[in-house]
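hey team, just a heads up i'm posting the complex here instead of the shared drive bc the drive is being weird again. everything in one block, sequence lines first with there labels, then the predicted structure for the whole assembly after. its two chains so it's a bit long, scroll down
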Amino acid sequence: AQSVTQLGSHVSVSEGALVLLRCNYSSSVPPYLFWYVQYPNQGLQLLLKYTSAATLVKGINGFEAEFKKSETSFHLTKPSAHMSDAAEYFCAVSLNTGFQKLVFGTGTRLLVSP
Amino acid sequence: GAVVSQHPSRVICKSGTSVKIECRSLDFQATTMFWYRQFPKQSLMLMATSNEGSKATYEQGVEKDKFLINHASLTLSTLTVTSAHPEDSSFYICSARGVRGAQAEAFFGQGTRLTVV
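-- predicted structure starts here --
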């Protein structure tokens, strides 16, 4: 069965610093991988997805993630954090071509200080 | 992106009562809706998948008689937690997918925090 591990329930960065949120997956077949963001009192919003095309995926709000099969990782990065990036981030994996049966990680809360 | 509205955002109920949570797609027709549950500090876990006009498909370990799902229209799905108990206290979140096929993105509601006392 597929699973996702997000290292670090909380990550703190200063405004302007690099953001790195870690995600490792376990899957017996090539996975589809997703990053979602959740702002307070809002639903999950898709940041980006990997569906076996380019290994470096660019998403919204300046985020990107790189699929590394050898490391079974799909870490999320952003070169320069902004205060508005403070939110909860979820990594998810799916074996399907679509958005069915997503398996989520436990989430990482990103804190951005001035 | 498309908007999915979930109501209520928070609900407190007494043990033994039933609670209904609504999930509406506001600007698109949702052929498929998904219901997730999240315990504190744990992942979102898929509970069931429902297609409009059909019975929901429940994941292993989810009691279908306890978590009643209705998807009677292309814009509304409801989850009813029957005879709720304190262990049912959790965060419930729905997502909806439109008619454009399996590759179509699923959009999430803002979730419902259920507390059973």
